[in-house]
Amino acid sequence: MAAPFLLPQIHIANASCSILVLLALFVTTSMSSDIFLDWNVSFDFNVKPVSTDQPVITINDMFPGPLINASTNDIVHVNVFNYLDEPLLFTWNGIEQRLNSWQDGVSGTNCPIQPSRNWTYVFPIKDQIGTFSYFPSINFLKAAGGFGPIRVNNLPFISAPFPKPEAEFDLLIGDWYNSSYKDIRSKLNISDVISPNWMLINGKGPYLNPVSKSYETLNVTQGKTYLLRISNVGTFWSFNFRIQNHDMVLVETEGSYVNQLTLKSLDVHVGQSYSVLVTANQDSSAEYYMVASPKLLRDTTNPISLVGVAILHYDNSTIKPNGPLPKGPDPFDLEFSINQAKSIRWNLSTGAARPNPQGTFNVTNVTIVETFILKASMAKINHSSSPRYAVNNVSYLTPDTPLKLADFLVNGSGVYVLDAFPINTSNTNAVSGVFVASAIYKGWTEIVIKNTLDTIDSWHLDGYSFFVVGMGEGEWRAESRSSYNLYDPVARSTVQVFPGGWSALYVYPDNPGMWNLRSQNLNNWFLGEELYVRVYDPDPNPAKEKSPPQNLLLCGKFQPPSPAPSVAPTPSPSSNANTPHTPRSLFAIITTAICFFFIGLH
């Protein structure tokens, strides 16, 4: 009687293992790994990048924070231990969080990590390559640091459209205040815009400035070519970057390979990232200046601090750089800036995250089904003397309950009203409110952003790359569409909008979730220049949108009855150098071996 039962067992075993083997082979093909990071986030009063007593946010005692070095389709686990004295969230600038806005790390998607608590982000870097950054997203914390670089490398079988460089360098460049972020934050509601005082390069002050504790140096060998990954991690200033006597070849921006451009200098706006190739082809006995100078600023009182200066050091050099810093374009020359931005075009023929050409998915013949026209401005709410920033005359009011949490649990009831404010015109009176607009799922959308401010604004959409189809000075009109580039517009996630001008974007809302659309300029963002875009797919299939994570935090209307237990101290700090990577291909091999062994037993 045993035989009739043994045969089905073998079939079941074989079938089960066949499925497992196929799954394993599929996972092997994806060649993804799990990356595990433990981050101890704390204040450090000894960093003093400009010799000022101020709290600097470090991660594992590092400022800037550690590199997240991943490849396409890797899954990143970041266990954040909050040792600050206030709540904390991190956002992953440009990482699209496919089907998973639960991991986006902004006030509308996540309850904050409270002091002395920890929380683990888990997110796949699905179908992306390129240069990105991360930073704290709430409470003006970015002005104190906590930012760091993200690299997403190509899969081994997909070549980049340029030879492998000798080495890669991350350049995190941004403005910096010379006082505590808490002091600046407290003054934002009672005074006009406060401008930063310094420009740091990788957290270090300008070369030759007596107040700088140290300065940044990149070491190169003559004849070799290097990839520089440049990100503007500042809060206010756009900057122009250049290297004395060296050209740069622009190759990538925020996950898109571009038609290669040889440049003397490059504008980088707040929140933007670029990759450039630099060949060390000058006299190797000398060193050379690397300079980042703010746009729309001609400061005569403190030019030494407001210009970031670092050194390109040849390994045999003995001569320190001398003479004036290399000149860039006039900081008020918007025509230069607009023309350079328009010259950055998508490389249609190369593969990126996938082997098929980027241009396979393009906007040449799309049909727009909806248009957002968003005007950024300053406003005084209810005749208040405190200035606020607004979108269509609505200054965003952050609720205690994250929008995504309310959306999932009570369909937003009591937290926000969907489409309560206009997306094509401005509200009649300036108001504060929870601005949530719906986008049509899988309906091509045009977003026009107008800037009535007197500074360069910078806008970002979480969850997506959008196509920058146009930008210009003056008022946008329907006739402006005739100037759009619909052949090879670059796809990216952060776009500059020049003062008194406009930028136009095309986006395909195929990523369900609650997504933040905001100014990257920290003052503007903190004081209300943002909204959320709800992309809804009624299909409950988790393949369409992921369910809440098992470690979901509750807050606001859904405050848990008692606080979670305090976390134990973290293990010794980890960095990317010793980050455990669990290759899924190894899992596949082990699974396959177990299956064949199991079959053999039968």
TrEMBL record:
Keywords: Glycoprotein, Signal. Residues 1-32 form the signal peptide. Residues 50-154, 171-316, 434-538 form the Plastocyanin-like domain. The keyword Ribonucleoprotein does not apply. GO terms for cellular component: plasma membrane. Belongs to the multicopper oxidase family. It comes from Arachis hypogaea. One of its GO terms (molecular function) is copper ion binding. This is Monocopper oxidase-like protein. Pfam families: Cu-oxidase, Cu-oxidase_2, Cu-oxidase_3. The keyword Protein transport does not apply. InterPro entries: Cu-oxidase-like_N, Cu-oxidase_2nd, Cu-oxidase_C, Cu-oxidase_fam, Cupredoxin.
